[in-house]
Automatic annotation (TrEMBL):
Organism per entry: Streptomyces albidocamelliae
Keyword DNA damage in record: yes
Positions of region (Disordered): 32-52
Domain Methylated-DNA-[protein]-cysteine S-methyltransferase DNA binding: 82-163
Domain Methylguanine DNA methyltransferase ribonuclease-like: 7-77
Keywords: DNA damage
Any coiled-coil regions, as ranges: none
Name the UniProt record assigns to this protein: Methylated-DNA--[protein]-cysteine S-methyltransferase
Amino acid sequence: MHRRTVHTVHPSPLGDLLLTACAGPGGHAVSSLSLPGGPGTPALRQEDRDDRPFTEAHRQLEGYFAGRRTRFDLPLSAPGSAFRQRVWQALDEIPYGTTTTYGELAARLGVPRSEMRAVGRALGANPHLLLRPCHRVIGADGSMRGYAGGVENKVWLLTHEGALQPALL
């Protein structure tokens, strides 16, 4: 049985966000949130646009960008290995307005330092930009390492959340 993937677009300060969802037994679950044209953006057909399953996602995203929401509570669905699922779930535990390092995240997961790159690869494969806050993971030296939504958007998100101070001009 083929599940129809539907999508919508949510305007944001970062640009239009593309959300996709598949119907499941309990309704629709968000299968991805990405910036159109970015890495991992699924190919979609205009006739599969359907805004109705995304009412709650739109409401929560609006609240986040308005500074009223610090967590997302949406049904999420994405294929991935058990390891990737563990890494993605660990992202949910990084509090709003804070950051952690790749090494700290790996240690929290019990991943040996020799396998830390696997954590980075799992973060890079996170299909739920923003909803699963991989933007809160930074380099041990405070550097803004890769982010599928673009490093400039990572800086914007961390500044919006108060984890970074706005740059003085």
